[in-house]
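sorry to bug you again but im stuck and you know this stuff better than me. theres a chain ive been looking at and ive put its sequence and its fold in token form underneath. id like you to explain what the token line says about the fold, in plain words if possible. anything you notice is useful, everything is just below.
___
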Amino acid sequence: MNKQITVEAFVLVVRRCLFAPGCFVRPLLTAVAGFMLSLPLSFHVWAAESPTTREGDWVIRDFHFRSGEVLPELRVHYTTVGAPTGEPVLVLHGTTQSGSSMLAAPFGGELFGPGQPLDASRYYIILPDAIGHGRSSKPSDGLRAQFPRYSYDDMVEAQYRLVTEHLGLRRLRLVLGFSMGGMETWILAGKYPTLMDVAVPMASLPVEMSGRNWMMRRLIVDAIRGDPEWMGGNYSKQPRSAQFASVFYGLAANGGSQSLYKAARTREEADKLVDGRLKAAFAPDANDVLYQWDSSRDYNPSAGIDKIEATVLAINSADDERNPPELGVLDREIKRVKRGRVFLIPGNEQTMGHSTAFMARLWAAELETLLRTAPRQGQ
């Protein structure tokens, strides 16, 4: 099915993100959506003809989770851009997002069009929905709190099997991921070192989940579990704690200090911003939210870093609240990668903290150069 990325389609992506818990790109998409709605409906998010996108589902039978639990049928939903004859690229989304989120103008609109770094006429771009996200299997499908307690390692295993077993691909030119997708990229590169030529983990660190990043995630999980309205996951009405905790996390660990100050220079402006988010429609299911953030609890790709064979470009931003560069962690760990370097995006009033890396225009040139120069494994 050929889908042109029109204003209406883009607004749908925006709406899904705006109502998602801890939405990484809410401030950015709010501004972009307002601009897009002021344009004629014939205007396309991608200036040139939009690439062809297709969607599919693959069911993995008797999927074994790291926890020891087994799901008789695990549905993996995915979107592809371009023809299967193109060079394969795997793009991984962030927490609360889905594969289709990566089609948004700030990201896919800067990468997948004609003449852009991942031109869909040359590349076959695979955008899976991680376990617990989008249209892949998740608690709200029916099992609720009885759904297996999945982890990032389970997500990576499902993605690897999708690519190798279902799509029949032995080698990827690139694996690129944002936030949670960046962490999954670190895991994939270390666990399956011959799978890819190039790895680009963004807005992430290749070390154990810890510090403020985990503290804030745990508070989301604990807030929902401790809410009497949650009822052990068997609620008939969505617990209010999911939205409150998500708004708190989104402001504390995303948005950028300079950008938020610019948007709220007075207490009145700050209250208006907070009230707007708390009163906004909130579509996500509380069990899904809880599982999504809890799944990062045992993230730790450190043991695999020395095994990475791909050329690695780690992209982070100077104003990332969850992965602050002043810790020196990424600069230290990148030295363990045979062919790796860091690209740090400077922060300013236009950047969005943790969401900055979602703005592909800030690093698209770096990616284009990398794809042109990085060797192919085996050469």
Observations:
- Confidence is low (pLDDT under 50) at residues 1-22, 24-48.
- The chain has one domain: 7-211+295-373.
